Amino acid sequence: MRYLLGLFLCSFILPIMTTHAQSDTPTSACGNSMLITYGFNEREITLNGETRNLLFYIPESYDNTLAVPLILSLHGFASSPNQQSSYSDWHDLAEAEGFIVAYPQGTGFPLRWNSGDLGVRLGNVADDVGYINALMDWFITNWCIDETRIYVNGLSNGGGMTDRLACELSERIAAVGMVAGAYNPLEDGCDSTRPMPVIAFHGTSDSIVPYDGLSNRLFDFPSVESWAQTWAERDGCQPEADSLTVTDDVTQTRYSDCENGVEVTLYTIEDGNHVWYGADLGFSFGKVNAIDATTTIWAFYQRFSLMNDQ
User: Fold this and answer.
1) Phi/psi class of residue 303: alpha, beta or left (left: φ > 0; alpha: ψ in -120 to 50)?
2) What's the rounded Cα separation, in Å, for the pair 271 and 200?
């Protein structure tokens, strides 16, 4: 796996086939007869009149009779679905645990997500919330998905987009995870309709999205600690967080006793930089091996579903 090489690299995915969403109202594909291509699938799909590339992975254990979780993992600014797959390695865990993982694609050049105010400043007006919402429907229509266990995570700008989705699609997403997230204000603020389980990872030496925040003519990033505290307040958690030293390099800040039993957890990586933690870069950069973000997020996800709200 390769390092993100800053925010100004991009790659391309070649479209293999075009698929259109079958209906505006998703109908579960559980039990239906279909041709299943296990492993990686690359497709060009059209949703809401917009065509984008999609990379997703179907594990060998999938048999279309048992509803499985769906994970959406969003790439960073100037990155791609292929790169996000390489950094996060969600597909290896999907094979072991039996869920479906998808790596959606942003828009523009370089590829990016309209994650809020930053998206507007960068000239991105794409309806990415509507696209991800339609993409969830597409998976439900075509695959046997447990609709109470749809999860989203992302890197950098993808983490910022995940933050926005947690606010605007909270009725569909069971839990979210962010790595080196670039969080920025939303025009209408955050209006989540249910408490949201949140897990995040951020390095104190992040040179792209500073841990202590950044405010100038283009960027308006809050400090990571204040961002986590704001989510804890939304979720009705106890105001005082528990702090745990995980290793010499990693500290966990955990807000508990939240509404509906959710939790807000932030892992701070001392001297960590702008990476997906746990990625196999072939060399040590920015404390990349301090913690495995993918397996830690999955362990967190398994504790939460929309059924918790019932």
Assistant:
1) alpha
2) 16
The two structure tokens encoding residue 218: 């283009």
Q: Which residues of 169-194 are buried (b: 16+ CB within 10 A; e: fewer)?
A: bbebbbbbbbbbbbbbebeeebebee
pLDDT digits (tens, 9 = 90+) for 32-54: 867 789 999 999 999 988 899 99
CA-to-CA dists, residue 124 to 77, 105, 107, 143, 154, angstroms: 12, 14, 8, 31, 18
Give the whole-angstrom CA distance, residue 266 versus residue 244.
Answer: 11
State how far Cα 236 lies from the chain centre. 23
Question: By the 8 A CB rule, do 236 and 258 touch?
Answer: yes
Give tens-digit pLDDT for 189-229. Answer: 998 999 999 999 999 999 999 999 998 877 889 999 999 99
Model confidence, pTM: 0.89
Position 290 scores a pLDDT of 96
The first and second tokens of residue 38, run together, are 């296990």
Going by pLDDT thresholds of 50, 70 and 90, the confidence category of residue 234 is very high
How are beta strands 250-255 and 242-245 bridged, if at all? antiparallel
Residue pointed to by tokens 């072991």: 96
How far, in Å, CA of 22 to CA of 38, rounded? 21
